[in-house]
Design brief:
The complex is a heterodimer. Chain A is built from six helices and seven strands; from the N terminus they run βααββααβββαβα. Chain A is α+β, with helices and mostly antiparallel strands. In chain A, strands 1, 2, 3, 6 and 7 form a five-stranded antiparallel β-sheet that branches. Chain A has a two-stranded antiparallel sheet with strand order 4-5. In chain A, α5 crosses α6. By secondary structure, chain B is of the alpha+beta class. In chain B, 25% of the residues lie in helices and 30% in strands. In chain B, α7 crosses α9, α7 crosses α10 and α9 packs across α10. Classes of the chains: A alpha+beta, B alpha+beta. At the A-B interface, α1, β4, α5 and α6 of A face α1, β3 and α5 of B.
Chain lengths: 219, 503
């Protein structure tokens, strides 16, 4: 069965930024909707998966292998900068809180027992950082505050791949396994993520298929 | 190692990933801040929001490593390029291993992404400590108004698991990257990197050991599959063996050390009693004031210490007094102040009216002083009472108890002080300070008015680059200085000349 979801578990505080702040409070706000539900934009997620797929294809091209992984990647993600004819078959929604959690929170919102702010503040924290100069003193005007999504939050995105080949799905699972970080400061501890297709079992099953594809080498 | 800043490909072309892990242990208390001030303490430590365990952000680890590597390679206090038009400085900075390993520096819009990924670390707390800090008025030697604060600290023994990932791209020089990384991480292994607030005053000393490394060669099938399955339930078990960083990274030599430092170590006995007040602890059950004890793993009740802040406070005040005395008249006083500020850092960071950071950046102290443990001293509870001068009787409500440390014959405390980029005149001033401590003329801690806090020198050593002197007291009370005292005399003369030149 074709996977239908991408599941992202946030492992360390993450800032999926929205490019603005709240004056006098936070310099970098995270992406959230009108209810205060944080999310990760589908466009961003597709970009991250596409980059990871490129990492995998690059590595596979270094090995002798009979499968054309580049073609599989292009069919899946499309070629950058091309028109409609060559667009990929991969479509993904924004990654949002799971349906169960959303409906539970929505009930609280409707009942007036929680506000949008309560929800946002409950799922996030504020981190501050400053830069030091080469003389060991704080650099002037470098104190920043950043909202972070707390570790443990799970986001889910709906996935539509049309009618993918087994190879395309196994490339996608490899991309999901390669994707370990997202958002601002992702080389400095922020935004460690665990990405799965549907769930852990499905991910493992497709990984085994991927491994089989990789083992099939030219004679 | 050359990095081509003109040609950038759309893709990173990663051929190898290297995962490095180790365990960081705090050897002295540390403050990793960033949390808002709360009702209990002025400076709380940063905690992981989910489980309230202490947090060491990847940004802090990367910053400390970057700074260490940059100092190691380029020498201490090498100015960083600040303005775009300064092409030569920018080119020099880009060639540094610190830039290649940790990515473009601040202000370089064309800077490269760092190939090193540093993870946040959630620690295992040993204990919390609270420390009082207070600023002392030099003229009266009493606490300044509104200058008392407290600080929450993670106790020594707290540990943090560290995780790094080094990404090797197709055209990178693998050897150079690994050498740079090994040089930086060696700083952790040798406890040469301190972290967090007041790291030059004894806090945040740490050591990392048990390094483990796993190499994933993505050009091989197995390497790629192993990489993709790391951290998953079905991943094969970690078989990496722990070792020193050079062993596990398979690096045969480190970068060249270009730092210039002077290190002064001095061992003292305690002449009488010593009391550095602690503001917290089980005060209700004990004396009104108790000498400061710091938590140490495996030592219930902690160990008696002299914090680096106390050492620095008295040394700074005395340094200023000496410099002002030698420089003489009032017109040259600012020279003496500037001399001491350059050594110990400014006493107060003030916002300037016309702020030009590039022309006059704020500088931290060039002197690093470690927290000292006091060995073989006993705590003794003493009861004191104030006397009413008029009646000669006891002053009502003025009975109090305190618990200072009492020095014994084998009581021992060691001062360890490091000075970056030392000048001869500055070494001269340090020697004068050492003399004052050695002879008991410069008391430490509280109640110096009733004779507490005097030290007596036993032995000392001063290392400046490759040269080293040792100072020891002979049985007849005279000093034995080897190899020769004349060079030390020259340092003091240089100091006098610089101060007198200011007249």
């Amino acid at each position: 069965m074709t996977p239908t979801k991408i599941r992202i578990t946030v492992k360390s505080a993450a800032t999926f930024g929205r490019g603005d702040g709240v004056a006098g409070f936070v310099d970098r706000e995270i992406e959230h909707d009108a209810n205060g539900f944080p999310f990760l934009r589908g466009k961003t997620l597709k970009g991250l998966l596409s980059e990871s797929a490129e990492n995998v294809v690059f590595a596979l091209e270094k090995q002798s292998n009979l499968h054309d992984w580049r073609a599989a990647k292009d069919e899946l993600f499309g070629k950058p900068g091309r028109g409609n004819e060559e667009r990929g078959s991969f479509h993904i929604s924004d990654a949002i809180l799971s349906a169960g959690l959303r409906s539970a929170l929505q009930k609280e919102l409707d009942a007036g027992t929680m506000t949008k702010e309560d929800i946002l503040y409950g799922l996030t924290g504020i981190r501050r950082q400053t830069a030091m100069n080469e003389y060991g003193a704080p650099e002037n005007a470098t104190l920043r505050s950043m909202r972070v999504l707390l570790p443990g939050v799970v986001l889910e995105a709906e996935l539509n791949m049309g009618s993918p080949t087994e190879q395309q799905i196994s490339l996608l699972v490899a991309a999901a396994l390669d994707l370990r970080r997202a958002g601002t400061g992702r080389n400095r501890g922020r935004g460690a993520v665990l990405v799965e297709l549907d769930d852990a079992n499905t991910t493992q099953r497709y990984f085994e298929k991927f491994a089989k594809f990789v083992e099939e080498v030219e004679a | 190692m050359a990095v081509n800043y003109e040609e950038r490909s759309a893709h990173r072309s990663i051929v190898e990933r290297i995962l490095i892990s180790g365990e960081l242990f705090l050897l002295s208390p540390a403050h990793f801040g960033g949390a808002e001030e709360d009702a209990l303490t002025d400076m709380p430590v940063l905690l992981n929001e989910v489980d309230d365990r202490p947090l060491l952000p990847g940004t802090s680890i990367a910053g400390a490593l970057r700074n260490y590597l940059r100092e190691f390679e380029g020498g201490d206090l090498k100015p960083a390029p600040r303005k775009k038009q300064n092409r030569d400085l920018i080119e020099d900075e880009r060639k540094l291993a610190a830039t290649i390993l940790f990515g473009g520096f601040r202000g370089d819009d064309d800077g490269m992404q760092s190939p090193l990924i540093v993870e946040d670390s959630v620690g295992n707390l040993s204990d919390f400590e609270l420390r009082d800090g207070v600023s002392i008025e030099p003229s009266t030697r009493t606490a300044k108004d509104d200058q008392k604060f407290d600080m929450q600290l993670l106790g020594a023994g707290t540990s943090f698991p560290l995780q790094f990932e080094l990404v090797i791209r197709e055209h990178d020089s693998r050897d150079e990257l690994l050498r740079a990384l090994a040089t930086a991480l060696k700083g952790f292994e040798e406890s040469a990197i301190t972290m967090g607030a007041r790291k030059r005053r004894g806090f945040g000393t740490c050591r990392v050991d048990g390094w483990k490394v796993r190499f994933y060669d993505l050009k091989t099938k197995q390497g790629l599959l192993d990489w993709l399955s790391t951290n998953r339930a079905w991943a094969s078990k970690d078989s990496a063996k722990p070792g020193s960083i050079m062993e596990v990274l398979e690096v045969d030599r480190l970068l060249e050390d270009n730092r210039r430092r002077a290190t002064l170590r001095a061992a003292f006995g305690i002449d009488g009693t010593l009391l550095i007040r602690s503001g917290f602890g089980d005060l209700d059950a004990r004396a009104d004031t108790v000498h400061l004890h710091a938590a140490r793993k495996g030592k219930p009740g902690g160990v008696a210490v002299i914090p680096g802040t106390s050492w620095a406070g008295i040394l700074r005040h005395r340094a200023l007094k000496i410099a002002r005395t030698v420089s003489g008249d009032a017109n040259s006083q600012h020279t003496a102040t500037a001399f001491v500020d350059a050594l110990f850092g400014p006493s107060e960071i003030k916002q300037k009216k016309t702020f030009d950071e590039a022309a006059d950046p704020v500088k931290a102290s060039r002197i690093t002083i470690e927290e000292s443990e006091i060995r073989h001293a006993e705590s003794l509870e003493v009861t004191r009472v104030a006397i009413d001068r008029f009646t000669g009787g006891v002053f009502e409500g003025a009975l109090f108890t305190e618990q200072p440390l009492v020095g014994k014959d084998d009581s021992d405390v060691e001062l360890t002080l490091t000075l970056r980029n030392p000048k001869d005149a500055e070494l001269g001033l340090l020697l004068l300070l050492l003399k004052d401590l050695w002879t008991g003329d410069l008391p430490l801690g509280g109640e110096s008015g009733v004779g507490r806090g005097r030290l007596k020198g036993r032995e000392a050593s001063l290392r400046v680059g490759d040269r080293e002197w040792s100072i020891r007291e002979k049985p007849d009370g005279r000093l034995q200085i080897s190899p020769d005292a004349s060079a030390l005399e020259e340092f003091v003369k240089a100091f006098n000349a610089e101060m007198e030149g200011a007249k």
